[in-house]
Amino acid sequence: MENSGGIQGNITAGLAGRYAVALFDLARESNAIDAVAKSLGDLRAGLTESADLAALIASPVVGRTDAANAIAAVGKAMKLDSLTAKFLGVLADNRRLADLPKMIDAFDAIVADHRGEVTAKVTSAHPLTAEQLKELTANLKSRVGRDVNVATTVDPAILGGLVVQLGSQLIDGSIRTRLNSFAQAMKG
User: Fold this and answer.
1) CA 170 to CA 120: how far, in whole Å?
2) DSSP 119-182
């Protein structure tokens, strides 16, 4: 895989990117890209939904052995593929679990680039239905002319609407931003 220029060059610049590239290379060699991507997606959802899991990966006071045992139990409970489970063990041993969210983002970007896709990060106030997600994906695909991989997050603070980050472009259609703009206009 070429690591110079473009998305790959930007991804591999940091520590999280280097770990993500290593995981991607192993996944590609094992024909397990889809399995690893699914496991990492499940982990991302778990980190969002479980304050305990988020605290585990962020805690500097949890020792290597305890972190490795805890993350192995998480991997088993979430039925993660074996490559991802081993990767988590390496992260625990190297005390890099705190960088896991960045590594997941970098891995997703590498996979999208590998597949010729563009990744769009979409934030909504409420979870999107399958139909809404399908329609949004189709709209974004027609806008960029390429397949779009949509990564969704929920942030009730935006009140409503969507915030879409597509590469370096940010499309903010949130009610919070509209209200803030209205408030600024009212100030004069």
Assistant:
1) 10
2) EEEEEESSPPPHHHHHHHHHHHHHHHSSEEEEEEEE-GGG-SSEEEEETTEEEE--HHHHHHHH
Tokens of 60: 């500097």
Going by C-alpha positions, the residue among 167, 84, 160 that lies closest to residue 128 is 160
In 3D space, the residue among 175, 182, 183, 115 whose CA is nearest the CA of residue 149 turns out to be: 115
From CA 83, how far away is CA 164, in angstroms rounded? 31
DSSP letter string, 57-76: HH-SSS-HHHHHHHHHHHHH
Taking the CA atoms of residue 25, residue 26, residue 29 and residue 34 in that order, the dihedral angle to the nearest 10 degrees is: -90
- C-alpha dist (Å) from residue 56 to 47, 68, 88, 106: 10, 10, 12, 21
Fill in the DSSP letter of residue 79: T
User: What confidence tens digit (pLDDT) does each residue in 53-109 have?
Assistant: 999 999 888 888 998 999 999 999 999 999 999 999 999 999 999 999 999 989 988
Q: Global pTM?
A: 0.70
